[in-house]
């Protein structure tokens, strides 16, 4: 068809996706003079839209149109850079839009790097890579080592892995000053990374650093190999330190040997220097990184490298699932249970779920790995839909950390620490080991109040207390982000006795430093790691044993290796035991097991202490005595009896407005028609009923089959146009919601 169109001299028509929240395509004319080289599907074109010009994506090409030709606007120009969507990627994105019932234009918007959505064309150069001078003398290196150990470290790194990009180095904890200093001394130089046409199978593996696999590991690698050219989903369920990463590495090796590419998805924080350096140390291939620390240009470069086939391995967070890959052979989703894979606004996709979709579309294997698999994946594995692999032992001779519960109702508490815990911390420090104290609440205190009249500083837009951030001298609402100075006096009674209530990590750090003045305390949370490279720096310091006491939020629960941490303390788990959210227990168990996994790597045995007011709670007891597996299987039985996911399928309709009656009425109107095999629950006020000044309501649609769910959602969207409250609310759909 394209050929025929190319040789005609008449106008043609295209339907395009435009980055607006509308569930439709828009038709434009392509004047013959613009179509001398035939336009293709997936191409980007610039079109007039209202008073603006926007970049649109061509999704269909037609010879005629049902609209009056005079009314149709023309495409202004075609984007002529070297990126266009391959048919498979185009199809993948369309399927994502269908599955999540999300406007196609917005899905493209989220999938494309910013620079490819702009009218002004970016000038993309190939990324610069850094190398060491070949004739670097021993003497030169020795001087550097003496004067600046960090520069020497950088030099050694570059010597081992010739050709690293600045973003890779940054992720490894180096800074620009170190790089500049070495360049000035002419020890290193940079050049553009070339479009390597090389086949990496011969050079891929760096010599001899592959480990001899255990029997359990070997079976997984062999099974994946057997299924290399077909879709298969593998769940690797193994405790922290059981050798999952080693399995990934050897599975990747097989794919690289076929000159195919690998996509590795990691949680936001899992993209640690350690992860990258393990890949760097194993393979002699270009690795591209894709994470929120990159700027727009770097992100585009990752894309283009992947598409050209220059990058052999792409490691990235959630949105890396949309990376175009020249010849993708394997997808790995590490820590597949992690909440960061689900996008929680606008296009609410789950990167793990669409990764499976993508693997299926490409007929390639996908590996999901976790120490605490999500109930969804676990159920699919238990039912035989996925290949289920377990790694039961820690690799080497490291033993598993033992969890003990501390009954805090029976004890005197000091700054949130029981006497038992304080003693355990003391003993750990005395042995020269490190302790990690986990508190999932950042800031100084979760609220401030007046000691006289009990006034509490609430965010007016959310009806929730402000969190005190003492260091910044601010009250910050963790729900809408609004900020306020700390009032010197109570606005209600004028008293100056305003005090923090409760404790966050910032305060804990202060109190712990005071309790253990002879040791160094470090806090790792979103606040202390805001600056680029800050997390890497803190982790390096911890690794060098510059700090003995580590305080952190769930950021610290994930993926990091702390070989000298032998005590992990969890200050408070009670919130999850009595939650309205049916997933709270699952998430609490995952967090607890993940934090526990930080303790006692290497050969030193680890200990985990969990403080609770309800140490006899059956959920805690089951988890501690029988482990996550048993706990999860029990919980799955309960979910099945209650017909909750994964034994049913849900869509969540969210609506919000300035008045509470509108969203409620809008959602209630939706429930008027029944759907076969489906039930409505709600509308009910959201858990955060008011947020950023808007009143919010939820309606859940639950179905026995996905098909019934999708049909009902489809119909509800069609009918929403006739809903009389439609224009008064903002509403959205969340398929497979995880956060109610
Ligand atoms: P996970 O990813 O499950 O946390 P890793 O793959 O990081 O586990 O393995 C934990 C530790 O055990 C690492 O130091 C790794 O080098 C080592 N290890 C993994 N597999 C083996 C093996 N087959 N033989 C010896 N050591 C191993
Ligand atoms: Zn007061
Ligand atoms: Zn607020």
TrEMBL record:
Its cofactor is Zn(2+). GO terms for biological process: DNA recombination; DNA replication initiation; DNA replication, synthesis of primer; double-strand break repair. Residues 225-391 form the Helicase ATP-binding domain. One of its GO terms (molecular function) is ATP binding. Component of the replication restart primosome. Initiates the restart of stalled replication forks, which reloads the replicative helicase on sites other than the origin of replication. Recognizes and binds to abandoned replication forks and remodels them to uncover a helicase loading site. Promotes assembly of the primosome at these replication forks. This is Replication restart protein PriA. It comes from Cognaticolwellia beringensis. The lineage of its organism: Bacteria, Pseudomonadati, Pseudomonadota, Gammaproteobacteria, Alteromonadales.
């Amino acid at each position: 068809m394209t050929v025929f169109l190319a040789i005609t001299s008449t106008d043609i028509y295209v339907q395009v996706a435009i980055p607006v929240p509308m569930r439709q395509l828009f038709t434009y004319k392509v004047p013959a003079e613009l179509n001398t080289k035939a336009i293709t599907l997936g191409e980007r074109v610039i079109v007039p839209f209202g008073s603006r010009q926007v970049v649109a994506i061509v999704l269909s090409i037609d010879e005629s149109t049902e609209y009056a030709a005079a009314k149709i606007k023309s495409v202004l120009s075609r984007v002529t850079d070297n990126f266009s969507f391959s048919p498979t990627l185009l199809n993948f994105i369309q399927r994502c839009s269908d599955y999540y019932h999300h406007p196609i234009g917005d899905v493209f918007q989220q999938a494309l790097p910013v620079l490819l959505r702009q009218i002004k064309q970016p000038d993309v150069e190939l990324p610069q890579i850094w190398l060491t001078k070949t004739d670097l003398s021993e003497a030169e290196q020795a001087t550097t080592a003496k004067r600046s150990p960090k520069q020497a470290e950088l030099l050694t790194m570059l010597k081992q892995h010739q050709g690293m990009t600045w973003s890779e180095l940054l992720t490894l904890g180096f800074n620009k000053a170190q790089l500049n200093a070495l360049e000035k001394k002419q020890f290193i130089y940079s050049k553009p990374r070339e479009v390597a046409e090389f086949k990496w199978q011969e050079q891929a593996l760096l010599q001899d650093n592959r480990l001899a696999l255990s029997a359990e590991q070997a079976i997984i690698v062999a099974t994946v190999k057997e299924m290399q050219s077909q879709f298969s989903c593998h769940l690797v369920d193994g405790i922290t330190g059981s050798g999952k990463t080693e399995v990934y590495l050897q599975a990747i090796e097989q794919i690289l040997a076929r000159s195919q590419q690998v996509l590795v998805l990691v949680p936001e924080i899992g993209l640690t220097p350690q992860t990258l350096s393990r890949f760097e140390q194993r393979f002699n291939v270009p690795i591209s990184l894709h994470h929120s620390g990159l700027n727009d240009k770097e992100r585009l470069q990752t894309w283009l490298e992947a598409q050209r086939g220059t990058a052999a391995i792409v490691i990235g967070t959630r949105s890396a699932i949309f990376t175009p890959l020249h010849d993708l052979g394997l997808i790995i989703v590490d820590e597949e249970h992690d909440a960061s894979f689900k996008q929680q606004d606008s296009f609410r996709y789950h990167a793990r779920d669409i990764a499976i979709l993508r693997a299926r579309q490409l007929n390639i294997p996908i590996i999901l790995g976790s120490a605490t698999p999500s109930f969804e994946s676990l159920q699919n594995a238990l039912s035989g839909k996925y290949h289920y692999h377990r790694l039961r032992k820690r690799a080497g001779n490291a033993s598993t950390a033992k969890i003990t519960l501390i009954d805090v109702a029976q004890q005197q508490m000091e700054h949130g620490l029981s006497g038992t815990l304080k003693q355990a911390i003391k003993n750990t420090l005395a042995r020269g080991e490190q302790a990690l104290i986990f508190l999932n609440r950042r800031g100084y205190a979760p609220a401030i109040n007046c000691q006289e009249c009990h006034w509490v500083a609430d965010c007016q837009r959310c009806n929730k207390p402000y969190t005190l951030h003492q260091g910044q001298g601010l009250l910050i609402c963790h729900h809408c982000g609004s900020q306020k100075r700390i009032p010197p006096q109570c606005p209600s009674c004028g008293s100056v006795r305003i005090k923090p209530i409760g404790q966050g990590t910032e305060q804990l750090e202060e109190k712990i430093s005071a309790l253990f003045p002879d040791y160094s305390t470090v806090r790792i949370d979103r606040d202390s790691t805001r600056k680029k490279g800050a997390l890497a720096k803190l982790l390096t310091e911890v690794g060098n044993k510059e700090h003995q006491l580590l305080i952190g939020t769930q950021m610290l629960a994930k993926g990091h290796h702390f070989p000298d941490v032998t005590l992990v303390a969890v200050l408070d788990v009670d919130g999850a035991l009595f939650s309205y959210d049916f997933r709270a227990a699952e998430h609490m168990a995952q967090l607890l097991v993940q934090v526990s996994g930080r303790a006692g790597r290497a050969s030193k045995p680890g200990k985990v202490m969990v403080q609770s007011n309800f140490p006899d709670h059956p959920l805690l007891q089951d988890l501690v005595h029988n482990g996550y597996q048993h706990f999860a299987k029990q919980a799955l039985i309960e979910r099945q009896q209650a017909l909750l996911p994964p034994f049913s399928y849900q869509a969540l309709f969210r609506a919000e407005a300035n008045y509470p009656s509108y969203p409620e009425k809008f959602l209630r109107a939706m429930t008027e028609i029944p759907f076969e095999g489906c039930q409505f629950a709600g509308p009910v006020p959201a858990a955060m009923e008011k947020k950023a000044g808007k009143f919010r309501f939820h309606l859940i649609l639950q179905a026995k089959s996905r098909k019934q769910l999708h049909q009902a959602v489809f119909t509800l969207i069609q009918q929403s146009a006739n809903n009389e409250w439609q224009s008064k609310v903002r509403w959205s759909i969340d398929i497979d919601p995880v956060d109610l």
